[in-house]
């Protein structure tokens, strides 16, 4: 059978172009630059669009095709749990692009390999309305529907809700930046874990083949000793 050979690279290029395509007010379709092509990024999130909770749910329903039951139980989803565990960090926003769109990007610590290289996630948002247009991630899926993108979406919604006055300048205000996540855990070897209550003294050296030298206590050989035996 002579089957057609499908090119995975071409499929990805088509998908990537599609999610960066926006429609102007005149009806013209325009392809925005990719995230890696954007030069100017800002950690000050005062210009972050107002992303409501329902904006996230609408994206999950229409773009990610979540069923109704999964939407109702979104708090049990892996993406939402990643958000609660503060796996999102290094959030930056681009300058406003054509037709009032902006990119927001971040890093997401892997769920099971927290010492590994973080994933790069991004969201394309309409600046005026906060409508979520598309998303992407450096993970294997990279379709805007992975748990890393979902965690980022919920994080942006929470940030938007907590900093509703971020666009109002006040003399005592500090720069509106992403809330600092919890300290990342670093895996340790079992032998390196110190379980002692009092750690002020030096930890005793663990016995090894070179340091462990057991000695047999010599008992006195007397008549009294043999009688006990």
Automatic annotation (TrEMBL):
Specify the superkingdom. Eukaryota
Stretches assigned to the SWIM-type domain: 119-157
- For whether the record's keyword set contains Zinc-finger, the answer is yes
Sorted UniProt keywords: Metal-binding, Zinc, Zinc-finger
GO molecular function terms noted in the UniProt entry: zinc ion binding
Q: Which InterPro entries match?
A: Znf_SWIM (IPR007527)
Q: What's the protein called, per UniProt? A: SWIM-type domain-containing protein
Give the organism, scientific name.
Answer: Pinctada imbricata
